[in-house]
Structures are given as C-alpha cells and as structure tokens.
C-alpha cells in the first residue's frame, strides 16, 4: 500500500484530495499537514511514500519543503497539486524531483492518471533490479503504447467526453446525428454539439452535410477509422 501525506493549507481542498486518494486502489492517506513544519514533523515520525504537495502555503512554501526533503535525503516522492502555474515554479519543482505536476483546478481523471502512473512506476522498480530500454520506454515513460494526455478546450471535461465517445461507438462506423447522441446520453443537443465539434476538429470524426425534405441541412458524423485510436489522448 502506497502511503500518502496530503500537504495543503486549505482544509476543504485537503479533504477533497483525501477522498480522491480513497478512490484509488493501492493508496492510503496516512495524514494531512497544513504547512511546512507540520509536514516535516510528520515525515520524520511516520512512514510516507508520496506527498500530494501544494506550493502556496503560509510560511515556507511547498518547493522549499521539497528542497529540505532532498537535503535530508529522505526517500519521499511528491506530486505537486497547486494553482502555481508559473514556468519557473514548475521547472524548480521538477528539478527537485516532483514526479508530476497538477495545476488547480483539475479533473479527477487527471488526478487518477497521475497516481496510476506513479503506482505503475513503483511496481516496476520494486519488481526489477535492471530494465531494458524497451521496458523503460513502454512502461515507465508510457511510450509508445500510451500517448500523453492532451488538455481539453475550456468547458469540456474528460468524463463527459468519454460518455459521448462510448455512445458514438455504438454506431460503429455508421453515420449518426447530434440528436442521436443526445438521445443516447440524455444530454442537451447544445452540449453534445460542442463535443462533436471538438472531435471533428481533432479529426476523430468525419462529417457530411445532408439535406432533408424541407431543404434544411443536417450534419451527420461517423468515426474516422484512421485516427480513432488517438482518443486515448483525450479520455
């Protein structure tokens, strides 16, 4: 079981992160700290594998905590979860060994991706003394089997996109309309149209314009068989 310490000065965010951890198999939240001092004391007195670490806290910040942990040569990993989006801050966090960096606000899918990736790496290192380049590329770096997650446009979520995509797959390679997907998913046609437009823009869907009996155009879509495997970047 991977032991997680949540370092976050906002009690509501800390509790949310704790709930997220509970949903992840193989992880347990062993404690929570609100600042630099509390976190260091907890790490000294308890076994911790992974920090979910905020940057902006009262007093010394999360990057300073990460530096001190490295100075003490403590074998604790960290995933940064912070509103800090400045490039120098991100670079410094990575330089001091952060294994991932989530910018608030984030979706649970991204959180799940971060912890699942960490769990997979830990399993690899615990089971092997040596690795081949192929194992490193395919398992640790997740290349080429798993492509990097791509940021969705504002207003779209991975969870809803997955619902829409699963509905699309029921039509296989046949044409369907916005109304078809709306009926399948019980979403509004306006919302469905946004997701279909996105999938069209990234060339996962082909679109054709058809004219009905009264001359009004109807857009019909179908899965692009040549690119559909790229959906893994988005869901």
Give a written overview of the molecule:
With 235 residues, this protein is an alpha/beta fold. It has two domains: 2-140, Rossmann fold (3-Layer(aba) Sandwich), CATH 3.40.50; 158-233, Arc Repressor Mutant, subunit A, CATH 1.10.10. Helix content is 43%, strand content 19%. The chain has nine helices and eight strands. The protein has helices at residues 11-22, 36-45, 62-71, 87-95, 108-127, 133-140, 158-169, 178-185, 189-201, and strands at residues 2-7, 27-33, 50-53, 77-82, 98-103, 176-177, 205-211, 217-223. It has a five-stranded parallel sheet with strand order 2-1-3-4-5, with helices on both faces. Strands 6-8-7 form a three-stranded antiparallel sheet. The longest helix has 20 residues, at 108-127. It starts with a strand and ends in a 12-residue tail after the last strand. The mean pLDDT is 88.
């Amino acid at each position: 079981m991977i032991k997680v310490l949540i370092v976050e000065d906002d009690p509501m965010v800390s509790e949310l992160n704790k709930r997220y951890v509970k949903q992840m198999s193989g992880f347990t939240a062993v404690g929570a700290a609100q600042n630099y001092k509390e976190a260091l004391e907890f790490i000294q007195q308890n076994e911790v594998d992974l920090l979910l670490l905020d940057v902006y806290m009262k007093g010394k910040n999360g990057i300073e905590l990460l530096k001190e942990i490295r100075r003490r040569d403590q074998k604790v990993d960290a995933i940064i979860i912070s509103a800090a989006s400045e490039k120098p801050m991100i670079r410094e966090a990575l330089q001091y060994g952060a294994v991932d960096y989530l910018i608030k606000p984030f979706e649970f899918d991204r959180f799940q991706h971060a912890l699942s990736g960490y769990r997979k790496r830990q399993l690899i290192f615990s089971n092997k003394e040596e690795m081949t380049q192929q194992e490193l590329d395919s398992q640790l770096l997740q290349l080429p089997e798993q492509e990097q997650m791509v940021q969705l446009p504002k207003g779209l979520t991975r969870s809803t996109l997955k619902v829409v995509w699963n509905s699309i797959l029921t039509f296989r390679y046949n044409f369907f309309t916005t109304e078809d997907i709306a009926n399948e998913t019980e979403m509004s046609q306006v919302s469905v149209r946004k997701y279909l437009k996105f999938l069209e823009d990234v060339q996962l869907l082909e679109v054709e314009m058809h004219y009905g009996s009264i001359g009004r155009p109807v857009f019909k879509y179908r899965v692009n068989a040549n690119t559909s495997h790229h959906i893994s970047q988005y869901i």
